[in-house]
Amino acid sequence: MTNDQQPYRLAELTTEEAAEAVTRAPVVIIPAGAYEQHGPGMPIATDTIRAERIADLVGARLAGRVVIGPPLPVGVSPHHMAFAGTVTLTTTTFAAVVREYVESLRRHGWRRFLVLTGHGGNNATLTTVAQDLLVSHPDVRFAWTPVTSLASGVIAEMGVSEVSGHSGEAETAQMLYLAPDLVHRDRLKPGSVALEGLKQEARLARSFSQPTLTLPYDELSANGVLGDPTSVTAEDGQAIVDAAVDRVSAFVEKWLDL
Fold this sequence. Notes:
Layout lengths: L14 H10 L2 E6 L13 H16 L4 E3 L22 H17 L4 E6 L5 H14 L4 E6 L5 H6 L11 H10 L21 H6 L28 H23 L2
Parallel strand pairs: 1-2, 1-3, 3-4
C-alpha cells in the first residue's frame, strides 16, 4: 500500500479512523478459513491464508472504499479431525462468532458485510447466518462466497483430476502463488484422483449429480488430499487468484454504487 492510499485493514485503524471509515468505506470484508490438515505438503492454515490474502488484494484495489475486518481463522472442520493438528468449531459456535462480529460492527454503523471463505466446510453455516440475519437484523445486508469457486472457469481449463478439491490442484496452485514459502514442494503427493480408486460409499459421496453425502476425509483419502498437487504451478495460482479478486471487486463496486 502506498502512502497516498487510505488504510483498509480495520486492525490498523485508530478508533477515530474507524468512526470515519463507516461512511467512507461502508462494506466490511471478513476473511474466513479453517485450521485443518492440508496433506503432507501444505500448512494447516491454508484456507485462512488464502482468504486473508485475497481479501487483502481486494482491499488494496478498492482502498478507501472497503474495510477488511477481523478474520475467522478457525472454521467448521469435523470431517478432518482424523488428521493431526486439525481444530474445529461446531456449526453453532461458528455461526455465533460470525453473528457477533456483525453485531459488534453494526453498533458502530456498518450495515454491509461480505465473508470470503477459503473453506467449503463453512458454507452451510454461512447460509444459515444469512437467513437468520434477515429476521434478527433486517437493516443488515450479508453476502458471502467461497474463494475458489469464483475461478471455476480457470480451474476447469487446468485439467484437474477426476477427484479433486481439498489440498488438490486449485488450493495448491493458490498457495504456490500467495505463500510459496509455506509450501513443502518436496512433500507434495497426489491423493485420491479417480472415482474408481475410492471405496463404494466414498465414490457415491464424490458423485456430485445427486444428493450430498458428507463423510470424514480419512474415508476419502489416505493422506487427506483430493487431486494431484504436484501438477500445478504458481502461474496457475495467479490465474485463479486474479479471477477471484476481479469477481469480488466487481461485485463490491456494484454494491457500493447502489
